[in-house]
Amino acid sequence: MTGEQILIIGAGIGGLSAAIRLAAAGRRVTVVEQNRAPGGKMSEVRAAGFRWDTGPSVITMRHVFADLFAAAGRRLDDYLTLLPVEPLTRYFYRDGVVLDATSNLADMARQIEAIEPRDVEGYLRFLAYAARLHRITGPVFVYDEPPTPARLLRLPLWDVLRVDPWLTMAQAIRRHVRSPHLRQLLGRFATYVGASPYQAPATLSVIAHVELTGGVWYPQGGVYAIAAALARLAQELGVEIRTGCAAAAIDVRNGRAHGVTLASGEQLAARAVIANVDVTTVYQRLLPDAIATPARRQRLAAVESSCSGYVLLLGVEGEHPQLAHHNIFFPPDYRREFDDLFRRGVPPDDPTVYVAITSKSDPGHAPAGCENWFVLVNAPPLGKEFDWASQEAAYRQRVFATLKRYGLDIEPKVRYAQALTPVDLAASTGAWRGALYGFSSNQALNAFRRPHNRDPHVAGLYYVGGTTHPGGGVPMVTLSGKVAAKMVLADLGG
Ligand SMILES: Cc1cc2nc3c(=O)[nH]c(=O)nc-3n(C[C@H](O)[C@H](O)[C@H](O)COP(=O)(O)OP(=O)(O)OC[C@H]3O[C@@H](n4cnc5c(N)ncnc54)[C@H](O)[C@@H]3O)c2cc1C
Hints:
- By secondary structure, the protein is α/β, with parallel strands linked by helices.
- The protein folds into three domains: 2-43 and 58-82 and 221-303 and 442-492, FAD/NAD(P)-binding domain; 104-213, no CATH class; 307-429, no CATH class.
- The chain is built from 17 helices and 19 strands.
- The chain has a seven-stranded mixed sheet. Strands 9-2-1-13-19 form a five-stranded parallel sheet.
- α1 (13-24) packs parallel to α10 and α2 packs parallel to α17.
- The structure holds flavin-adenine dinucleotide.
- Flavin-adenine dinucleotide binds next to α1, β14, α15 and α17.
């Protein structure tokens, strides 16, 4: 371990990823985490003999995690067992159609043919289009430092024009497939970054490539196994993780970050500070007024947030062989769902309901003859239009009623229930307005507006996590740790 210490505020996946890379480079790293356990939005609950992941459930881009372990001279397989999930997701439509999305092209083509024969060719063209997007945009928008005008100018202009970057995702999908079922399925990938397919740029279709071609992975033991594995690796590399330890302020002198004052009053000196806290929250709560001026606070607070989520952890009696590990129940009017979320600021009247059941892959997650349901519904970021404290119980009934329309009369079978609202998420992780994925990706230029991993006003202050480059989602925040660590090492030298 060399040099003065680097302090990281927050042991979310982004914070742990940065800690691992810095410690692997020989730096002394301390992580302060306000909660009792690392992981941030990736968390778990155990009750009444059941176990649930409470945050992320769909893990893609295995190579991002393998790369992180390799950077520390370890093998991912020695820390985590990532099992491929098939079907990727089972989709239920209100008209009775059921489609198992799969990376097996022959199987997918057979199912599409039964819905709309002309879409088999369109679906293959769409996959090729999404793969092209990944090839063109990945190096600039995902896998390296934030895009600069110079790097953008190096993009192959002809290739960029051929992927129609000015279209919305929904428009690009319409150019490839006709079936409303398939359009809805492909549009849903916008929600992987908390966006609307009717507003988000076509370039976000890259997410479809990542899942439909690259596959979905389930970490044996539960998704939380990823957080546990990263924390274990960090500690093996000498990182000190102090849990139950909230930062109250980032200490700034002469425009430079010098350390952190904890809520306990203890002061920790550092040569560099990395905040794994939403950038807006850092400006509202952790930086001094001279830096976090009213204008800067207001500017950040005014940026549209990604959507949030309403979660029900259900201990369910009985087994449901008609369900897969990942299930989606679609409403007939998808556009209305996003109008509710982003225009009216209320939870959807007729929501898409997502149900993940890890006991299908890990039977120990529920008592014999039972299942552990993680139910997730898109919710608007916190605002004046909806009060979760007084309206949660009624909304829960709406979710049960929606499932009943698919023949799943779950409520009488519920042995245990716990709701997690956007208010809970904001309180437990510092997520601004309870957003799941940081800032909104609903506008084409948002990839350029996202706060940089280096703070522009304070030297020695860096950001990792969903609100900074390259964005939200577990693989993305893991990559943000790589970007921030690279910047810290470049700035500190030696
Ligand atoms: C319900 C839900 C479902 C999701 N589904 C998926 C999915 O299927 N796939 C996917 O890839 N992603 C999903 N996500 C998103 C994914 O979980 C996040 O993008 C990612 O985990 C965020 O990581 P992060 O590095 O930004 O840190 P966060 O998880 O935001 O962690 C920040 C950490 O900082 C700590 N902290 C905050 N303030 C302080 C302070 N003052 N002092 C000390 N510590 C502090 C917090 O306690 C927290 O531990 C989901 C999220 C949720 C909530």
